[in-house]
Amino acid sequence: MNVFRSGVPRVLLTRYLHVNPKKPAVEVIRLAAQVLQRGGLVAFPTETVYGLGASALNASAVQKIFAAKGRPADNPLIIHVARKGEVELLARVPVIADRLMDYFWPGPLTLVLPARPVVPPEVTGGLDTVAVRQPAHPVALALLRAARLPVAAPSANRSGRPSPTTGRHVLQDLHGIVDIILEAGPCAVGVESTVLDLTGEVPAILRPGGISREQLDAVLGGVVVDAGMLGPAEAPRSPGQKYRHYAPRGVMYLVEGEPPELAGRLGELVRQARRQGRKVALLISEETAGFYAGREPEPSIMEILGSRQDLSQVASSLYAALLACDSRGADVIYAETFPEEGLGLAIMNRLLKAAGYRIQRSEAGGQRPE
Ligand code: TXA
Ligand code: MG
Q1: Which ligand is closest in space to the CA of residue 154?
Q2: Is residue 206 a contact partner of residue 214, using CB atoms and an 8 Å limit?
Q3: Rounded to two decimals, what is the model's pTM?
Q4: Which ligand sits nearest to residue 188's alpha carbon?
Q5: Which residue has a Cα nearest atom 12 of ligand 1?
Q6: For a pocket test of ligand 1, which of 192, 237, 243 has the largest count of ligand atoms closer than 8 A to its C-beta?
Q7: Best substitution site from 77, 169, 189 to test ligand 1's pocket, by max atoms within 8 Å of Cβ?
Q8: From first to last of its 370 residues, what are the pLDDT tens digits of the chain?
């Protein structure tokens, strides 16, 4: 089946192939690797989100990624490698980068390094730096090893949409546009990698993600967080941070507060929305859901993200919850906020962007104007 989208190059057939997440079948991996070698597009699972991969050193293959996603050309891509040793071919590797790779790779940490000329400008968005990471998912690693290529891969969603955390999410966004989708079930981390820039005077987090600021601090003894990260940025150093992102189709608001009183305020907001005939969704923690239980009226959609005591649950269910709001037609979405510690920094960065920075504060009358 083909999905019509004007301006987007289409392939005749998207192959949607299930693979065992721990032990992917050799034939399927070989097939996907051949597609990459021939300049095609393969969506594959990583431990963070699904990636949309193409051969990183093949400029025309990389251009297909931008066309498939509808991504602005100045937003650079991350190159995925099978092993640390490959990075030397793509970038200059300072001692500190080497150390961080030993600590955190394979894993959700992307390093921005000075690029070597072999990296095409399509990948770097014309910058003189390049972002690299070794993903931790067995399917991603098997594919990278079989392809024997560095693979450029953004998240496998149409630009601006929530990132996919299952192959089915990719199918919904990119059916008929990519050659192969490898389905290996849900991603463990659920938010993207942390992007750490090592080309400035001090290491700087350009995008918070699966490796926390605290974990980096423990190794580096000092890391700064790019100012563009928790507010609408003036001039973020990571080009991707300036675009509207992770957004569901309904209007979304973050609602501050602690579970007991938050449940009461959410109840009032649900009542108002229902009265206006709007389909309302709540994205809340287990704790808040506990206090909401039995309250009338019920929201049309309630997505329980996980416990406030274990933010890894919240991270791993976040994008699926945003996408569920879309598939179930939510007009308005109210989401709980989380402490900006550990994974909470990445969770809040994504929630704020998804909500277009609309927050309803907990103090009486403290609502931020839209
Ligand atoms: O977890 C992840 O990182 C996923 C999986 C598939 O690996 N990939 C991902 O890619 O999130 P993408 O393209 O959606 O986000 C890459 C981010 C963007 O914000 C981009 O601007 C930034 O990394 N980036 C890439 N290269 C850069 C560079 N040379 N300098 C600064 N930022 C860069
Ligand atoms: Mg993305």
Answers
A1: 1
A2: no
A3: 0.93
A4: 1
A5: 154
A6: 192
A7: 77
A8: 344 455 666 766 899 999 999 999 999 999 999 999 999 999 999 999 999 999 999 999 999 999 999 999 899 999 999 999 999 999 999 999 999 999 999 999 999 999 999 999 999 999 999 999 999 999 999 999 999 999 999 999 999 899 999 999 999 999 999 999 999 999 999 999 999 999 999 999 999 999 999 999 999 988 888 876 656 655 566 666 666 678 899 999 999 999 999 999 999 999 999 999 999 999 999 999 999 998 888 999 999 999 999 999 999 999 999 999 999 999 999 999 999 999 999 999 999 999 999 998 876 444 444 3
Atom of ligand 1 nearest to the CA of 133: 7
Query: Is the CB of residue 299 below 6 angstroms from any atom belonging to ligand 1?
Result: no
Q: Which ligand is nearest to the CA of 158?
A: 2
Q: Where are the alpha helices (DSSP H) in the chain?
A: 26-37, 59-69, 87-90, 95-104, 121-124, 138-147, 167-174, 213-220, 259-275, 286-292, 311-327, 344-354
CA distance 159 to 242: 12
